[in-house]
Amino acid sequence: MLTPAAMTPAQQTLIDAVAARFGPKAAITDADTIAPWLSDWRGRYAGASPAILAPSSREEVAAIVGLANQSGVPLVPQGGNTSMVGGATPPADGSALILSLRRMNHIRTLDPAANLAVAEAGVILADLHAAALAAGRRFPLTLGAKGSATVGGLVSTNAGGTQVLRFGTMRSLVAGVEAVLPDGSVHDGLAALKKDNRGYDLNQLLIGAEGTLGVITAASLRLVPAIAARAVAWVGLASPQAALDLLRRIESPAIESFEIVPGDSLALVLEHIPGTRSPLEGRHPWHVLIEAVSSDPDGEPPAAMLEPLLGEALEAGLIADAVVAASEAQAEAFWRIRDSLSEAERASGPAVQHDISVPVADMPRFMIEGAAEAEARFPGTHATAFGHLGDGNVHFHVRAPIGADRDAFYAEQAPAITRLVHDMVVAAGGSISAEHGIGQMKRAELERLGPPSRIAALRAIKSALDPHGILNPGKLVTLAPGRRGP
């Protein structure tokens, strides 16, 4: 048995009150049950907490947050705990309780005619996909963690994924938000209004706030018609610039995904992920995964559009080889490679990950020159980038030298590597966080590199809405100077 974190009197009082009002399922103090939720997905951050509070309704969330605010007990909202930046990990000192939204896992309504679903914060993305499909619709956002990522976390981090090229980030797919604010009051913004000019848009403020301004309890989400047919292709080519030229050549509303994969990342997947195989014969420096779709069962099949375009690109020398999946099983096998890139890299050894964006036209040059600069400055490392080339967002990773000690690498080299990469990104007019958020991993870098006016505004908003600093302490932004948390 694990030893639970020590409770402060205020925490004990809050835990007892929650258990008394909402039952034992709402207040978990068993250390073994809590343990899996104390570290992040990557294993970079570990915290401590004496309890998980697990409400099952908006009203229970409001009551718990209100009590926490009154007693000064910080809360860390948590869904599937798939944050890539330590955004859902409690502080190491045990000062905060975890507020789990996983019991709030109902799809309240799903209206195919209106193309809207209202899903609670704990709904798992894959379950939302399945429910929408059963109604002849789909929710057009997907990512590798779809089996565990939850709606609340996706909204709170303004998640992206592999279909941003056509549909945008979560911000574009959220039509309304329900949330509990730091004082325990409820913001009911679920109505999917196309026009609403009542001042500041609280829904948009809460999207991407990483649980620092409110606890998302439900969201109205935009749906689109289900896919009637799709074509998934794997392409081998010489460079990121060739990949972008290919995208420009084939770009159309039917192209939903355009993912770039370096050859060495593919090799890691083939080495570490059982059952995977290379889609193409021979070796290629770079690869692209393309998905084209149609929602019209009587329309032209996407393959009939995509195949001749790739044939023309092959004849023009723009690409070296290509294959269009001959079956759904083969299409899923292609996507499994893409979705396994992070898992394969993690199995290969330590790496410093960066989720960055620069203007699309500048991305190919950045991928090549940025990698060369990182490797030159840190001998023995290997830098590479993969991801959403079409929307200017790649995951720029710097892998440790072969045989490097994990802890020593993270302690001694990772901060300097991150500083270099972020400096290059800012110099290129980009963002140090394209889709994963800031969390605790990038907070210092945001304060170092963010325009002072932006940082001041973020702090002012945090101080105004959460003056006691009870929601997700240590993430995204600190309280404004002169303001103190509990």
Folded structure, characterized:
The chain is an alpha+beta fold. It has 4 domains: 9-100, Uridine Diphospho-n-acetylenolpyruvylglucosamine Reductase, domain 2 (2-Layer Sandwich); 107-225, Uridine Diphospho-n-acetylenolpyruvylglucosamine Reductase, domain 3 (2-Layer Sandwich), CATH 3.30.465.10; 229-341, Alpha-Beta Plaits; 349-436, Alpha-Beta Plaits, CATH 3.30.70. The chain has helices spanning 9-22, 31-34, 58-71, 125-134, 151-156, 164-167, 170-173, 202-206, 240-250, 263-272, 302-315, 328-339, 341-348, 363-377, 406-412, 414-427, 443-449, 452-465, and strands spanning 27-28, 52-53, 75-78, 97-100, 107-111, 116-120, 137-138, 174-180, 186-189, 215-222, 224-225, 229-237, 255-262, 286-294, 321-324, 351-357, 382-388, 393-399. The strands form 5 sheets. The protein has a 5-stranded antiparallel β-sheet. It has a 4-stranded mixed β-sheet with strand order 1-2-4-3. The longest helix has 15 residues, at 363-377. The radius of gyration is 23 Å and the shape is globular. The two termini are 31 Å apart. The mean pLDDT is 93.
